[in-house]
Specification:
By secondary structure, this protein is mainly beta. The protein has three domains: 69 residues, no CATH class; 78 residues, Sandwich (Immunoglobulin-like), CATH 2.60.40; 78 residues, Sandwich (Immunoglobulin-like), CATH 2.60.40.1120. It is 13% helix and 34% strand. The chain is built from two helices and 16 strands. The strands form five sheets. It has a four-stranded antiparallel β-sheet with strand order 5-4-7-8, with no helix packed on it. A four-stranded antiparallel β-sheet has the order 12-11-14-15, with no helix packed on it. The termini are far apart.
Length: 296
Amino acid sequence: MNQPRPYRILGVLLMLPAISLLFWITAMLASSMPGTVAFAVNVHGLNMTTDGAPSNLRPAPLSLSVLEDARLDAPSPTPAPTARPSSTPHPSPAATPAPAASPTAPTLGPTPPLIPVATPTLPVTLPTPTPGPATISGQVLDSQTKNAIVAATVSLSPGGAMAVTDANGNFSFSVSAGTYTLTASALTYTSASQSVTVKGGQRLVVSFKLTSVTAYGSISGGVVDSATQAPIVGATVSLSNGLMRVTDANGNFSFTVVLSGSYTLTVSGLGYVTQSQSVTVKAGHTTNVQVGLVHG
């Protein structure tokens, strides 16, 4: 009974190295021993011959059964293996790196003492206070009686502000720092003005004394030579309030508007002795004065 083909193939494969070794040993012996018979296998002729035998000897043919067995034992072509789908690779866990050795801290020497450094003190800048508004206040009075003038009007320039005095003659303005002109006026009184300068937050008090137009009177008169009664032309007549007149061709003079009150009248002329006298002016009346000069 024939053996299964795989076993025969395996037997042939195992015999090939043994046969090759046998041939190598035989060749080595033949080369060292003359006359030794060497066999050679003629694969193409399928016969055997001797290496040193006479040429008239014919090698014995191989058995046909041996050739058939060799043909059957020849390996059939192996089909190419079918590639199998590769399995999904599973990620290998990453190797955890070993912790690096901590560097050894160098040994420090003694710490030098710290030298205190003076910290520069910065100047503290405080906000400059903004000055508040200034105040201008005051009172309006009658120049003769010194009584308060009620409902007098006080105007402010620049700005155009206006105030009316109360029962005590007082008024008040709230203004910014600067220079202003105040003007006070009242019915039957002459107006008066004055300029003031105020700073921020300052309180300034001013006073107005108005003269009533009904308190005015007048003075009129003449200057003559006391000896001849002839009029003196060009004589100078002055009042103690600063008013002054010069006599005309008839020796006359006049002060048409004079505040009621008492004054000193002084008269002087070229070649005459200067003469002074007291006069009183009443409101709404004209005071007449005649002066006679004496030659000097």
